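haha ok so turns out i had the wrong file open the whole time. this is the CORRECT one, sorry everyone. sequence first:
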Amino acid sequence: MIDLKTYEIWFITGSQHLYGEETLKLVAEHSQQIAKGLDNAPQIPVRIVYKPVVKTPEEIYNTIQEANTTSNCIGIITWMHTFSPAKMWIRGLNILQKPMLHLHTQFNRDIPWSSIDMDFMNLNQSAHGDREFGFMVSRMRKKSKVVVGHWQDNEVLEDINTWTRAAAGWHDWQGAKFARFGDNMRYVAVTEGDKVEAELKFGYAVNTYGIGDLVAEINKVSTEAIDALITEYEAAYTMEAALLKGGERHSSVYEAAKIELGLRNFLQKGGFKGFTDTFEDLYGMIQLPGIAAQRLMAEGYGFAGEGDWKTAALVRAFKVMGSGLKGGNAFMEDYTYHFDKDNMLVLGSHMLEIDASLANGKPKLEVHPLGIGGKADPARLVFNVSGGSALNASIIDMGNRFRLLINEVEAVEPQHDLPKLPVARVLWRPLPDMKTGCAAWIYAGGAHHTAYSQNLTAAHLQDFADMAGIEFLRIGKDTKLDQFRNELLWNEVAYK
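then structure:
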């Protein structure tokens, strides 16, 4: 389980010595109350930690430097209660390495019409203090999230919630390791990418490990551990009698459990947060990991098939950002279409590896031939995914930049039985409609592999892309194809 409460966001208030000790005492009291209110807000999944009011360039620099080096600090919230001359912030902002949210609020919600005087005005200067700070952030071309409104308003709390989740996903990438077993599927373009540039840009490392190393770990697994895991399978999933212990096809389940345990041990020993594999490189393995990948994803690991390390990393980020929210996040692929003009749909699936955190009901554990790869029949979980709002996201290497592309979709309940399709599956309608959504995705160079989310929104991913400093494109209910194609042209100029 990913526990976001282990992370901190530091609440930093700006002021200056001009206003005297009495005013500064009130600034500190108000700041502590706001930080405590945010920390106690049920919407916000991380800790919000008050830091002493900064009043000089040295205090600002030292506080930001400490934030940079504190491992569980994943970002800062800045607020100017009074006027804080922004030249004081230059050195601090220059070294800032963590995401920043600028909260444009004030302690009091309402103007006290009958009692307002200049003492009140001198204390409550956020309306122009934050503008002074905002100028310096803009002048220095620093990325920040601006949230406007009273700090107790639910809309403001939700905006902060969204940003903190993006910050948690971004923080989790820093120093993360992803393992590739085998290379990318041969001749495939979009799953390739510059791993050196990705580490420079995103902070995570991707390296390849031999299938033989994984097989060696699989072969160390004890019979007792395998039997215990199979007992867990039998309790958690629906299984036909032939797959149970003593059944004529039980050996396939046994091998799948052995692979899962060996793979988990390999990942844990290496400190990996995700992995990829490919059916074109399975030397020494009995079957392709199916249920193993599904269950590891459900535990929070990132995964994508066919060597697609960019999507594996994105799935992991989704797992972190969506922790504690209703719904799941998983590897996905646009597999085939239903082109009925009155009911156009995408059927999303993959050969084996869709995460059962998306499942609507109890999954079935089944064993069927794969049809490719030339290995034994793999075990996998089969289930339908429920309807509702969702999104697909893809990170693409455009050569001179990375692009994060999303398409908001509306998943629908299964409309027909699929008795001969032995994989997990979901049906959705791309927004704004099938023709526009698919055309826009293709114009933007979107991959066939995606991270699919039932609980994240475009706002989460916009914040995430801003933290990464990469291009962000959204296909949603308001998308017009001609405008979208113009946006692609404008971005080509902007990113050159």
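The longest helix spans residues 250-270.
again sry for the mixup
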